């Protein structure tokens, strides 16, 4: 009954002793995991409502009517988060790559580029992202620029791009440095120029290696888009704040949290999957 | 000048205080196969890397067809096109198939059309029994197949001389033979070869001359019969005795 997989391949084969044993062990551990998780959840459901303030919390954080009323608007506000995210992410990727390559130059004539990259990375990594957003998002429109160049959408996104490109440039740099010296030797010995070596041999391998880290940073970026709410754009967090005041109820924040959860958890799982796959490959 | 294909004159190379090449002078003629032998750390790899301009030498001259390529500031890329090099391990680019590995340099360096180089690469792969592996990624190949593919990749640039650095030392014994066969084929076709090796039986069989390096010094250059039969230096004798005893050859 449970060896359908074997029979399906046209060549019916009873599971070997080892397979049968492993299957039994797998089922047993699944069962244990299910039972213990169910017990833990049941305990939470029983215990939490016994807390003295539960009634009040439930009214102000988990108000079903408020949730139903605000959720569609929150969802449409979230599209702004997505737009800002998809505008920022490619810019971050390209800028980070450029900065990482500048950080890596060895030719003395190009040293100013390297110096610039070092300062860029150091400065932007040391300042909290929210501060960068305030300084650029308020500072640059304050120069008296004309519309649309005084838009907080633009300068907020620029701030995010600058901050994140500094982090991701470091990710790229570690990736580049992780490529074994013999790969460079092999490329050079074939007569490839330094630029071709970087482009065709080193970078493709380096980027592949850092993909899981990049996905994690993208998840962080999606959440940090919400920081832009502090300088103006009415994205989901700001919208939730508006509703909070309107209904005198915190449920819209819970709604916003749910939206972020649903959007980011698949990406986080995907990053885990990629990481596990790479580890498996390396130990092979 | 001499008629040597490759001519090393008084090569010196140090890493910090460590002298790795001490005044090395040797000529390699066209179509000749010269083996470098010597203990671990004697400077074989360093010498080969210097010839391919991967490491700069401190003093001396490297002449390729009579032209000094070791002048500081000499553009290394055209030189490397004439010199093929294969390393001990990690040669192939893991993110490319065998065929892509082979095509990369001809396309990007020689600007050959993809179709032309594909034909040429497939002919080479066929000759070395790797045609069925053309579209396979390197991690699916045995060590011997990887080294043969690396040699084919170097050959696709149509080098005039090949430097092989212990291309069999990372291989299981039963895979060594297939790589040595490839080297025999290259020699038979008239390729000029300089190779560092631990395979004394092979060096004896196939080389025209053998160089013995000891602590960065070129102690002895001799035809294989003399090197393995009646070496001049006491240190050469000691080395060969020790190695041949462990390799069960001679
Ligand atoms: N990049 C480097 N920096 C410092 N020292 C080095 C470097 N490369 C090689 N050496 C040193 O130079 C010496 C010669 O090394 P080399 O690799 O040329 O020896 P080898 O004859 O090829 O040895 P093996 O048979 O083990 O491959 C060694 O002592 C090594 O530690
Ligand atoms: Mg070596």
**Helix and strand sequence of chain A:** HHHHHHHHHHH
Q: Biggest β-sheet of chain A: count, sense, barrel?
A: none
Mean pLDDT of chain A: 84
CATH architectural type of the largest domain in chain A? Orthogonal Bundle
Helix content of chain B: 25-40%
Count of all domains of chain B: 1
Cα-atom Rg of chain A, whole angstroms?
Answer: 26 Å
Uncertain spans of chain A, ≥5 residues at pLDDT below 50? Answer: 1-8
DSSP strand tally of chain B:
10
Main sheet summary of chain B: 6 strands, mixed
Report the span from N to C terminus of chain B. Answer: 38 Å
Number of strands of chain A: 0
Q: Structural class of chain B, please?
A: alpha/beta
Explain the overall architecture:
- The complex is a heterodimer of chains A (284) and B (250).
- With 284 residues, chain A is mainly alpha-helical.
- Chain A has helices at residues 4-8, 17-47, 54-61, 64-103, 111-126, 129-139, 152-177, 181-189, 194-224, 236-247, 251-283.
- The longest helix of chain A has 40 residues, at 64-103.
- The radius of gyration of chain A is 26 Å and the shape is flat.
- In chain B, helix 3 packs across helix 4 (114-127), helix 3 (98-108) packs parallel to helix 5 and helix 5 (143-155) runs parallel beside helix 6.
- Chain B has helices spanning 44-51, 76-82, 98-108, 114-127, 143-155, 173-188, 200-206, 224-229, 234-247; strands spanning 6-15, 18-28, 33-38, 59-64, 67-68, 83-86, 161-165, 192-196, 209-214, 217-222.
- Chain B is α/β, with parallel strands linked by helices.
- Chain B is globular, with a radius of gyration of 18 Å.
- The termini of chain B are far apart.
- Chain B is 38% helix and 24% strand.
- In chain B, the strands form two sheets. Chain B has a six-stranded mixed beta sheet, with helices on both faces. In chain B, strands 2-1-4-5 form a four-stranded antiparallel beta sheet, covered by helices on one side.
- The interface between A and B is medium-sized, with 19 and 28 residues.
- The complex binds adenosine-5'-triphosphate and magnesium ion.
- Adenosine-5'-triphosphate (ATP) binds at residues 15, 18, 20, 38, 40-46, 166 of chain B.
